[in-house]
Amino acid sequence: MPRTLDVTLNARLRPMDRGDRYEDPLVEAFEEADIDCEPTGGGSLLSSDHEPTLCDFSVEVDCDADTAVSIAVAALEEAGAPKGSRLQVDEGDTLGFGVTEGVAVYLNGTDLPPEVYAEGDVNVLVEELRSHLGQEGHLQSWWQGSRETALYFYGPSARRIQDLAGEVLPRFPLAGRCRVVPLPLTLP
Question: Is the pTM of this model over 0.85?
């Protein structure tokens, strides 16, 4: 009898990033276990500024509930699921899971001198952050609003991500007036 797994990730992700980082590896994990798995939908909760605050998706699997939970949690945590994420099978009890903590780096998009925007390259900044963070933090997604752009990093310790990012950001004029904010460890 097919089971429905409802996954709510305490992650700020664009839909494509959600699919690449979490949905696809989950489907692959079930396929590797020789279990049929079919995605059935997903979405993101957005703030009033249209910034993602969490995302969710559902899959239908053809196995018992314990096997479904075991495979799903292992695959999602290996992919870097944030603490505070939830899994529910067939509208039953929810199970919390997750292994990473998140930090958003909000780059100011309106209040810096025009030449900073003209001469700065956000891709160079992102690459330097990625390199400096190493295994301590991974860029999982980003968001561009009307006044700022957010870079969402997740790793074992939000504090460590903040400290390492703080070593890089002052070297980049494009990071002037940025905010570095730890993300909540619980769902909104």
Answer: yes
How confident is the model at residue 188, as a pLDDT? 77
**Residue 87 and residue 102: Cα distance in Å, rounded?**
19
CB neighbour list of residue 111: distance below 8 Å, 6 or more residues apart? 177
Q: Looking at the structure, do residues 92 and 106 belong to the same domain, yes or no?
A: no
90 and 114 assigned to the same domain: no
Return the ∠ at Cα 118 (arms to 114 and 119), rounded to 5°. Answer: 115
- The per-residue pLDDT for 101 is 98
Query: Which pair of structure tokens corresponds to residue 23?
Result: 């949905």
User: For 28-39, how does the pLDDT look when each residue is reduced to its tens digit (9 = 90+)?
Assistant: 999 999 999 999
